[in-house]
Design goal:
It is built from five helices and seven strands; from the N terminus they run E-E-H-E-H-E-H-E-H-E-E-H. With about 190 residues, it is α/β, with parallel strands linked by helices. It has one domain (about 5-190): HAD superfamily/HAD-like (Rossmann fold, 3-Layer(aba) Sandwich). A seven-stranded parallel beta sheet has the order 1-7-6-5-2-3-4, with helices on both faces. The chain is globular, with a radius of gyration of 15 Å.
Length: about 190
């Protein structure tokens, strides 16, 4: 843990309405289903404080973007329409708590495909920038719970935050995050 700083050390006085927050979904906003996928809204369980964190983040930043790998589509466990229904539910819940999500991008492809859109590849961020040209990756923060999330952010010049999973204390990726936090709520708190 000593190689990177707790999120509380991030200087939020430099973060303003020109910044963008990129969020992974499973394990960051909602509970990750081990060895399975969230295939319907009734399987989507918000992590404690996630809705409030998104509300706080969306008040301070210009864009809130979700980027999520959803290989379950390629595996035939769910359809792209199932993922869209989950994301419609997510957006509705966020809006009902006065938060905002500007864009949700997901990659339905197999991890082993040579040219896929999955993180750490940057195509989901490139699509977001096409939709929102004002996004500046050097004024963006990527929050994720997997090494691929951190690598995704680093490849684009973003500030990166690794969320520790339950009982997780060691980061296993080769590319180190700038900061760590125990939850999305801990990230949201710095925007109060």
């Amino acid at each position: 843990m000593s190689s990177f700083l707790h999120i509380s050390a991030l200087r939020t006085d430099k973060i303003d309405s020109t910044w963008t927050i990129f969020l992974d979904r499973d394990g960051v906003i909602n509970k990750r289903i081990v060895d399975d996928y969230v295939k319907s809204p009734d399987e989507f369980e918000f992590l404690p404080g996630a809705l409030e964190a998104i509300r706080l983040i969306s008040r301070k930043t210009r864009r809130v973007i979700i980027v999520t790998n959803q290989q379950g589509v390629a595996k035939g466990l769910m359809s792209s329409q199932d993922v869209d229904r989950v994301h419609d539910f997510l957006r509705k819940q966020v809006m009902e708590t006065d938060g905002r999500i500007d864009g949700i991008y997901f990659c339905p492809e197999w991890a082993h495909q040579a040219s896929n859109c999955r993180k750490p590849n940057s195509s989901m961020a490139v699509r977001a920038k096409q939709d929102f040209p004002e996004i500046d990756f050097t004024k963006s923060i990527m929050v994720g719970d997997m090494p691929s999330d951190i690598e995704f952010g680093k490849r684009l010049g973003m500030t990166t935050v690794w969320l520790q999973g339950d009982g997780e204390t060691d980061y296993s990726g080769d590319i180190k995050p700038d900061y760590f936090a125990c939850s999305l709520w801990a990230v949201g708190e710095i925007f109060q």
